[in-house]
Write a structure and sequence with these properties.
Shape: rod-shaped
Helix content: over 70%
Number of strands: 0
Order of helices and strands: HHH
Largest sheet: none
Strand content: under 5%
Distance between the termini: 15 Å
Radius of gyration: 21 Å
Length: 97
């Protein structure tokens, strides 16, 4: 490999790390929005049972989204640090040639 392709690979890896962080922040934002919506329902519509049921569903959905986001972020980060994605790319390039 040439020096230019090594730099290009490192920059691509850094872009992938930044994309992983942006995706993680999107999961966090979505989970917190669901939790905030449930708080609004609990605060202003606590006398209606249908709204309470929806509020509890939003709490559960928000928790699931947060958990999936954290799990996905650390899984992708671990694979990037191990070089799994880079190795997969190199294997694909070898198979094509």
């Amino acid at each position: 490999m040439t020096e230019g392709s090594d730099v290009r690979d490192q920059l691509a890896l850094e872009r992938t790390r930044l994309a992983n962080e942006r995706t993680f922040l999107a999961y966090i934002r979505t989970g917190l929005s669901l939790l905030a919506a449930s708080a609004v329902l609990f605060q202003f519509f606590s006398t209606l049972n249908a709204y309470l049921a929806v509020a509890w569903l939003l709490v559960a959905a928000g928790g699931v989204v947060l958990a999936v986001g954290v799990w996905r972020f650390y899984t992708v980060r671990r694979r990037l640090n191990r070089g799994c994605y880079v190795q997969k790319k190199q294997h694909q390039l070898r198979d094509e040639s």
